[in-house]
């Protein structure tokens, strides 16, 4: 077990290092490249003294290394800095947007996992059949389809032509104000506070964005499931089970899927980065008020501190998910060690 | 592996589904290239000129893919859009390969602490969502506010390319680790050849084959990411004929039922991505010796 402990310790040390590297890269890119963020945010007509005053207020007149140290120290205290545009702290907004994005990510997983698992399972157990071809085709399509285009098509069919689901995603403002904030995820909060009506309305608004993002993620799960199932089904214990006359269906589920599930879930977990990237476009397509749209707006208004903070949050969550997945994988597979 | 070996490997007498995927991908890419090159000749209308037809005309014989809110011909814009899609993606791939491959060669060959640090940086960027990284870089480069189309396209490519550097770095570095142990490399070292000669003459030619499928995969991803940036409004400027830009414009008119404005640009992004994805996937299967045994 010494190997395992060492592995986990090394991973624990590397995780903050990874976040720090990403932060540094983004910090450098935003500060070193030409262009003055403050000037860009106020426009060309504002007098220079005023721009200087804002710079001083935000600490942007200090040397670069000092800004960097201040930024990192602030982050360690949970301080994301002040917005270049509003010149106020935006932590509250950032975290509530983050909760909304997390809600979308979780709902998409509810679509992606069953869809990917069943398609991959059907493909592997009926290898070479037309069902297998359809499943592989859907897999390739999910890799190459622009997530915003899929969103647009779903909006058109289910929102505009059939009128079943709303074209905007996420809870409408009226619901958001009605439901008390507990976790920041409106669906969960409305359930916790017993407001079933608010819950149902929110679910209705979550269907299309979750389907869109879920389909895009399902491709990876589909592919991994297919490969893992094919591998497991050729194992000796499966052949032995067949020889003992155990029914085919039971072999596939109990011996096949159950053993294939470990690599499937871990590799699916590693696709979290894909999920977060896809979420930015999905949120934008459905006018969903999440971290992705927040970052997009910050980029458009050249609010560099908010961009930096959003990247920080994304980096932390990606690093954390990777850490958890790696540790689970190492626990399950004794071959993975440093 | 020599280039002729690669070719024989890729197109043998006995062919599987991968070979046809490869062929289909190549056919689509050739069509796209023709579209991009001949756009000025085959496009029936000027892509930027407004009111060449009545606004919001659905697809008909005069306007194959309809017209948009300003009466511009969607079909002509799509033909021209192939240009920006291919140009931005190629530039991004070239920049990423030009930085990633030499770094991977050097890092893998030298080893030691430099290799450790570079690998950690590359792994971090690799693990991070590519679109979000591109978005952050686009915030600094501001392609939408660029003064000319060319600089907008270069800035978009730069924003995307940052994300792909690690893919080249990782695969080349991993191959170099085994290639550098070969006797011919040891011999060159013993003869006193300098690092540059060893890398370019002995290590590089034997380490680059695994990067070939990555080029195609990156191309696919670059088209998706570039159109994603344009869709978000931080890529190419709004009047420019580009699939991502047009899709974003069309999306705003979706409530009017003008589906053709967003459907066709999206379809093109999908087809282009699919083609490069199929080529990359097929090459991956065909060039990967482990797959051959199955």
Topology, element by element:
The complex is a heterodimer of chains A (338) and B (294).
Chain A: H1 2-32, H2 37-42, H3 48-58, H4 64-76, H5 91-125, H6 130-144, H7 147-161, H8 173-178, H9 186-192, H10 196-233, H11 236-243, H12 248-270, H13 272-285, H14 291-300, H15 304-332
Chain B: H1 3-10, H2 17-42, H3 74-110, H4 112-127, H5 130-141, H6 149-179, H7 183-190, H8 195-207, H9 211-232, H10 243-252, H11 260-287, H12 289-292
Helix pairs in contact in B: 2-3, 2-11, 3-4, 3-6, 3-9, 3-11, 4-6, 5-6, 6-8, 6-9, 7-8, 9-10, 9-11, 10-11
Notes on the structure:
The complex is a heterodimer of chains A (338) and B (294). Chain A contains 15 helices and no strands. Chain A is mainly α. In chain A, helix 11 runs antiparallel to helix 12. Chain B is mainly alpha-helical. The C terminus of chain B is likely disordered. At the A-B interface, helix 1, helix 6, helix 7, helix 13 and helix 14 of A face helix 4, helix 5, helix 9, helix 10 and helix 11 of B.
Question: Characteristics of this structure?
Answer:
heterodimer, A: 338 residues, mainly alpha, MetI-like fold, globular, B: 294 residues, 12 helices, elongated
How do you describe this structure in short?
Chain A is mostly helical.
| DSSP E strands of chain B, number | 0
Strand content of chain B: under 5%
Can you say what the CATH homologous superfamily of the domain at 82-240 and 269-293 in chain B is?
A: MetI-like
Second-tier CATH architecture of the domain at 91-300 in chain A: Orthogonal Bundle
Overall geometry of chain B comes to elongated
The major β-sheet of chain A equals:
none
